[in-house]
Prior knowledge:
This protein is mostly helical.
Amino acid sequence: MDFLFNLNVQFYLAAYLLGGIPFGLILAKVFAGVNITEAGSQSIGATNVLRVVKETNPSLAKKLGAATLALDALKGIIVVLAAKYFELSDSAQWLVAVLAVVGHCFSPYMWFEGGKGVATGMGVMAVMLPVPTVIALVVWAVAAKTIRISSLSSMLGLAALVVSSFILYPAMFHAPVLFIAFILFYKHIPNFVRLVKGEEKRVA
């Protein structure tokens, strides 16, 4: 058990456990009295919180959706910033970032179910790759405003981040970026299926 006293290992565990906190589920249950894993897309993310709570309380839905988005991003930001503060190696920082996203998508508190990982993914990327993240957020915002399909907008933003990271940092080891992108893509497969069938709902 001596490995548990290793700083890197402690950060890896913290990243996974912190990333796994299902803020959307908690906020919707506490403040709206609904279980979002049993309604809408059954996701614990901000979009489903907004969609489900909006059915009964539109004004509260916006607040809870915004809070979920912020908290899901912050849990990624905080753990990676802490890794930087304690001067972990670049590779260790990237593993912390990956594990925060894995925790959100496969939460230990939800029997390894979880959210789609977009907010947490953008949170860790905002620290590790700030410029590509800004580019991704711009693409996401434009797509969200015009297309109004959350999943498609998120994937377009993700694609912009990956492409811009290769262009801006060609010498960088991109495996962690691609791994996070793969997880987010994998978690969005049900959305793609609904999109092909014309069943994916637009955000009002």
